[in-house]
Structures are given as structure tokens and as C-alpha cells.
Amino acid sequence: MITVLELAEAYQFDFNHILINTQKTMKNLKVTTAILAIALIGFTAMSCKDGKKEVSNDEMHSEMNHDNSDGHHDGEEKEMAMSDDQNGSSENILKDYFNLKNALVADDESKGKELGAILVKSLGNLDVSKYTDDQKSELNDIIVDATEHAEHISESPMEHQREHFKILSKDVTDMVAITGTENTLYEQFCPMYDKGSAWLSMSKDVKNPYYGSKMLTCGKVQKEIN
What we know:
The chain is mainly alpha-helical. The protein is built from 6 helices and 3 strands. Helix 4 runs antiparallel to helix 5. The longest helix has 67 residues, at 4-70. Residues 93-183 form the DUF3347 domain.
């Protein structure tokens, strides 16, 4: 017959056994939890690192595209790279005119002033000796008027530069009608600026010199020259 003492000892043994097993289970659970936590931290770190790489690559790709989009188009590159020829060439006047136009497109007032002064010099150097008397007379009138507006551009803030550029563009267009040009030009037109204003470009892409970044693509090609 089992005595009360033996029964108590048996219960105590079972209780200790259960307690030991429970402690082992808790210990194993803690170890497992710690391992899972470490694994999760490692996975998260790797994911973040990969994510940063992806963002970095995307940003780099975006910046490259942005650089390409902000760069000169083919026509604008031609405008910048036109041959100087001799000082008296009408092509040299066109080169300086296009550079000035691009400065207005870029809203660059100081560059506009600088290029206005350069255009004054190239206008003054135009050699009209090979033209007929009537053409010489007309060209001289054009050059006098164009020079006046180029001088104003070299001394004026952006708003007034654009006002004078409108008349300057007409003068240069009239000059090309007499001298001709080695390149295909596009007369472009903005209906919004000063009741309608035209300018010349070597690119079909419209880049508005009268509004710049405010309305960069406002306008259309209205005539192809040469």
C-alpha cells in the first residue's frame, strides 16, 4: 500500500519532470526565436541593400535620360557648331544668331547680353561686295537695323532682350532671303507672344525663345527655308 509520503514524492517527481521539460522547451523556443530573429535581420539588411542598389540604378538611369533630354537636339548642335568661315560670312551671323536664340530659350540673361555683343561684331563684318547694287543697299539697311537691336540686347534685361529679338529675327530672315544659306532652316512661329512672333531655327523641334521655360514648346514650324 502506497503511503502518503510515497504519493507526495511521486507527484513531486512528476512535477519536477514536467518543470524540467518545460524549461527545456522554453529554452529551445528562445534559441529558435533568436535564430529566426537573426535570420530576419539578415534578410532585411540584404533586402535593403538590394533595394538601395535598385534605386541607385534607377536614379542613375533617370539622370542619364535627364541629361540626354536637357542636351542639345541635333539641330541645336548644328547651330552651335556652324563653321565660322571668314568674318564676312552671313553664315557667321547665323551662327551667332542661333547661339543668342538658345540663350533666350535657356532664360540666360547674362549669356544673352554677351552673345548680343558678339552678334553686333559679326553683323558689322558682313561682306556685301559680291552682291548687286540693289542687294547691297537692302543688306546695308538690314544690317543697320539688326545691329541696333543686337546692341539693345547686349545691354538689356531678359524681357527687353526678347522684345528686340523679335525684330532682329525678321532682319536675319530678310538677310537670308538675299544671301541664302548652306543649311536647311525652319521659320517657327509663336501666336502667343506680342500678337504673334517668328524666329529661325535649324531644328524642327520648337524651343520658344520668347517664353523660355514658361512655355518652351509653344509654337509651330510655319516655313522651311532652303
